[in-house]
Design brief:
The chain is of the alpha/beta class. Helices cover 30% and strands 20% of the residues. The protein binds beta-D-galactopyranuronic acid. Beta-D-galactopyranuronic acid (GTR) binds next to loops. The site of beta-D-galactopyranuronic acid has 8 residues, from loops.
């Protein structure tokens, strides 16, 4: 935007003063997207919403901790470690992975946080994770193992990391978890534009993908990042930043996830920053009740998955997450898929309850509440079958 600060700034720029990219002839929107716009939008999300994660100053080492056959599940369980080391310390992110036992070829894998309770011997899908203050998030108690069997029988693996190991979900001034490895009051204080907890979780998902890539039994080109609610926000951001994720799934991610912030329906920017001051970067706090000033909105986050398949799911009674705002994100993100001549979600209609719509951008509105259910999983499996052909 042109500044009006001085008379000089009103003088039109001559062509020789244009930034390089404005001088280049661009033939099509896909080229503009790939050479400029995508990176610009990532930067805007980094600077104003999730914060910037470090891209150097760390070393990684991987370890295979344990492997076990679980007869009753017809599955193999592996535990892997990603050791992250910086000059300030070290931290281990553990990934628990279940794989179908009889499979001649590497498996595609769903990877997320708290997809099951990884502290248990017998996995309990979507079992509540008790946060540091004994709160949240309450995922409805599922029939142990049923969903896991369903996923494994369809030829997919399922991997989970524990968010608390990556960065505890509490506001401590960015002094614990991954933040403590990169920031110290003395010589690297946490700045306004630095990563918050969602950024750290997304980074942790990428480090877990690094570990999965060391295994021959995993098809590393087909790892799907998935998350529910706050983990859905992190999954979208992880998928946006790390294009090695083959598919991205957001389940009821709401404000700061798939829901359009400017609608101010359900949870708002002011509310989320007040209750969870550590989730985003500190610059995001300035946008409470000033959503129109945001340089991006959340459909642009969904668009950063393009041209990879992305799925957004809402629940009818989850008004806090603004289901229609989530749908609109999927709809508007589809524009970038058109640059690739790929169909996203192009129907200008509200979806019918409990039906999946869209091609490379999938969406459904499930009846019921804020949760990740067997219905949701069935839709994700169908979507993954369609696009990844396990
Ligand atoms: C709520 C929060 C939402 C959502 C949810 C969850 O308290 O307001 O943004 O993330 O928690 O993570 O289940």
């Amino acid at each position: 935007m042109m500044s009006h600060a001085s008379d000089d700034s009103m003088v039109p720029l001559s062509e020789t003063d244009w930034p390089l990219f404005m001088k280049q002839k661009v033939s099509d929107p896909k080229t503009v997207w790939e050479t400029h716009r995508r990176a610009e939008i990532v930067n805007l999300f980094e600077n104003h919403i999730y914060g910037k994660a470090p891209d150097d100053g760390f070393q990684l080492a991987f370890e295979r901790l344990e492997e076990k056959v679980l007869e009753h599940l017809n599955a193999r369980r592996l535990r892997l470690a990603t050791h992250v080391k910086t000059r300030l310390g070290q931290l281990t992110i553990k990934t628990t992975l279940f794989l179908p036992i009889e499979k001649g070829k590497p498996s595609p894998v769903f990877l997320g946080m708290h997809l099951f309770d990884s502290s248990r011997e017998i996995p309990v899908i979507g079992q509540p994770w008790i946060g540091p203050r004994g709160q949240f998030p309450k995922l409805a108690k599922k029939e142990p193992e049923v969903l896991l069997k369903m996923i494994l029988n369809r030829g997919y693996g399922l991997a989970t990391i524990d968010a608390n190991e990556v960065d505890p979900d509490e506001h401590d001034g960015f002094k614990n978890g991954l933040h403590a490895l990169f920031h110290s009051e003395k010589d690297a204080p946490h700045e306004k534009g630095d990563w918050g907890t969602l950024g750290a979780w997304a980074w942790g998902l990428s480090r877990s993908l690094d570990a999965l890539k060391t295994l021959e039994v995993v098809d590393a080109r087909r790892v799907i990042v998935i998350g529910h609610s706050r983990m859905g926000k992190a999954a979208l951001w992880a998928g946006a930043k790390d294009e090695r994720f083959a598919m991205v799934i957001s389940n009821n991610s709401g404000c700061g996830g798939a829901a359009i912030s400017r609608r101010m329906k359900g949870e708002t920017v002011a509310h989320i920053n007040r209750v969870f001051p550590h989730w985003f970067c500190r610059s995001f706090h300035a946008y409470g009740n000033r959503e129109n000033q945001l340089p991006v909105d959340q459909h642009m986050l969904v668009a950063l998955s393009a041209p990879r398949p992305v799925y957004i799911a809402s629940a009818e009674k989850d008004t806090w997450a603004d289901p229609f705002g989530e749908f609109l994100s999927a709809y508007y993100a589809s524009e970038v898929y058109r640059y690739y001549e790929i169909e996203g979600l192009d129907k200008d209609v509200r979806p019918v309850l409990n039906h999946s719509v869209g091609d490379h951008v999938g969406y459904h509105l499930r009846s019921g509440r804020h949760d990740i259910t067997a219905f949701d999983w069935l839709k994700y499996l169908e979507f993954a079958d369609r696009h990844l052909e396990p």
